Here is the input.
Amino acid sequence: MTLQQLKYMIEIVNCGSMNEAAKKLFISQPSLSSAMKELESEIGVELFTRTPKGITLSVDGAEFLSYARQVVEQAELLELRYLNKKPSRQLCSISTQHYAFAVNAFVNLIQRSGAEEYEFTLRETRTHEIIEDVKNLRSEIGILYLNSFNRKVIEKLLRENRLDFHLLFEAKPHIFISTQNPLAGKTSVTMEDLQDYPYLSFEQGEYNSFYFSEEILSTVFHKKSIHVSDRATLFNLLIGLNGYTISTGVLSTDLNGTNIVSVPLLVDDRIQVGWISNHQLQLSKQAEIYIKELCGVIRDYGLLI
Here is the structure.
């Protein structure tokens, strides 16, 4: 087992494919594949599950990766201290539902990293893909919500994939609407108040189950319904069509401007937002800093549990 093999494995996981990792490492794909097979043969563990669609970490591979990252980090500290080598590029990858506070924390992470070189990734993506990203260690952290409707299904998926849910905060449901919407001046609204307005939600692609919806009350019928794939489009449609969406009520004027307001929705439900991580993986220093920044941003809104 060599330090180079450990670095190869880490790069494969970061890239999500053997071919992309080989390009970044400036070696041939067969050479990289051979190095991984030699490592697997030496330790007697299958690190990757190989299919025609690509490779993913095995259960044993996820555990091994945790140790590999620690070894590589310690080796880099030795090189930095005694060989005067410059620090390696800082890496961190986050997958999240469409939350402004997740972006705020990501901005803080980068601004305060102080790194000369870094490669950070923020994926605002679908619920099922968040779980898959963290399961396969494409991302260290995933951010999603639980409520009374989706809890059993999501928690079952997390258990099956050896993922842990860490609660960040609990929120009462709100709607986001344009400041020009006739409902903007209300202190609260009901579902009846909303029935004539277009309902906006994030599409979930192949896994378009009610349980994977990013909005609560996903089974409620809407006369006018629009599905979008990104947050900027959704906010533009809130303004252009006088539509609404349902969320936590946490808005960022820095990111979203002042054209959108949050109004409490009178329903008997709660939204529990948290972050998920791989049970077998020790978080990197950058991921730990991101969690700290995330808590700081949420605390500013008075929502931290």
Remarks:
- The CA atoms of residues 22 and 29 lie 5 Å apart.
- Residues 59-82 form the longest helix (24 residues).
- The mean pLDDT is 89.
- The longest strand covers residues 163-171.
